[in-house]
Amino acid sequence: MNKHTKIYIAGHRGLAGSAIVRELQRQGYTNLIGRTHGELDLEDATSTQQFFEQERPEIVFLAAAKVGGIHANNSYPVEFLMSNLLVESNVCRAAYATGVNRLIFLGSSCIYPRDCPQPIKEEYLLTGPLESTNRAYALAKIAGIEMCWSYNRQYGTKWLAAMPTNLYGPGDNYDLNNSHVLPALIRKIHEAKVAGIPEVVLWGSGTPQREFLYVDDLANALVFLASLDDERYNILTNPGQCPLINVGTGEDLTIRALAEMCAEVVGYNGKFVQDISKPDGTMRKVLDVSKINKLEWRASTRLKEGINLTYKAFGDNQA
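== GDP-L-fucose synthase ==
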């Protein structure tokens, strides 16, 4: 990539997509394209094809997706499956038809089997059953990975699938019914502090372990991958192998420890109560990030620092 390369960020207003835009702008890229859902419905194949034919982007970051936490995934599996399949297939078809050079597809660590060995290596994909609460979403993302690999094998494209761990940061969704665990904790703890509520209820046992990646670190990793020299990039997208690479910190903690860290940042002195009638989900999920580390990329934002930045952004939005 050069600073004038035409780059399309699909989902540029979402958590990941907006961070990609910030990172590209920070690095001096000037020819960025984004469309809101109202301007372009990526579930519509004809509109998507017309957009690509008109704009002719050279690089695509496919961050557009229907996302949510355990409750949303468990409650609306049809929507999570169908919406993501349509977006992926339409964008990939149009990108190939218009000669997109590099495409980075953004997946999710939930693609990996529920009970696979830890830390999770890329080759563990499809080696066991998925977590039932988000299986539909995971299968849609697995289809996106296979789509990238299939285009690489059949048509010689150079498309890469990046699998981030749990993301958080500015621009997150704080809806208690649809958000992921960290933004939900920030909101619940903040509201308990403001209202003087002496305790906060946490879903499940609090013992599952999770890894978290500050979203601006993810964006830095994706731009890093997209701008690799041909030799290193071609190794990652060799059609003889699945074009999959993990992006994370390689470190995890329990949900209870995460809640206590959030409480410290927010300044909440109440107690936590575990609602064990609610599901825990996968008991441990931490990525093996040795592949991207060998390319000399590492996450730079420590978790507590990232939560501080996220809480400040949450406070600004509340104001």
